[in-house]
Amino acid sequence: MEVQAFNSRQEELLQKILDEQKKQVKYERLKFIFACCGLLMGLIALTSVLIGFSFLKTHITALADEVAVTTAGINDVSDKLKEIDFKAIEETYQSFVSTAEDTIEQLKNDTEGINELIDQTMDTMKEADSVFESISKVDFSSLSEGIKKFNEVIEPLSRLFGSFGR
Q1: How many Cβ atoms sit within 10 Å of the Cβ of residue 154?
Q2: Whole-prediction pTM value?
Q3: Fewest C-beta in 10 Å: which of 38, 91, 100, 166?
Q4: Per-residue pLDDT tens over the stretch 28-38
């Protein structure tokens, strides 16, 4: 009986060892599955980072190209603005205004010198033509006010000359 009890005990021990081995195998399988999942997640994260970096690089490159084109356009405009002699335009405009004011004053005070007035007006018109040629090359809203003043000078003259033609 002792042998049978010993065999039975050995069998129980072997069964316990076998059960423990099965548990260990299950545990090792779970560890392996989790390790594979972790590796897969790491690969997905690395792929996402690489795709994001590629996407960002593409957009930054496109943005840099747009900045370069815009900068070139700004440089062109700046170069064109450097070529314009604003001082000469202002002086010509002031001269035109001054001449127009003098002409109106002479019309009010002295109607005897109409021929001289016509000559001065023609000179003023020639200066105005050169001013408008310079101005037509540049689009400035402040110059539109000068055009309005020019129209104010021409209207009384046309009315005055219109009254001589009747």
Answers
A1: 15
A2: 0.35
A3: 166
A4: 999 999 999 99
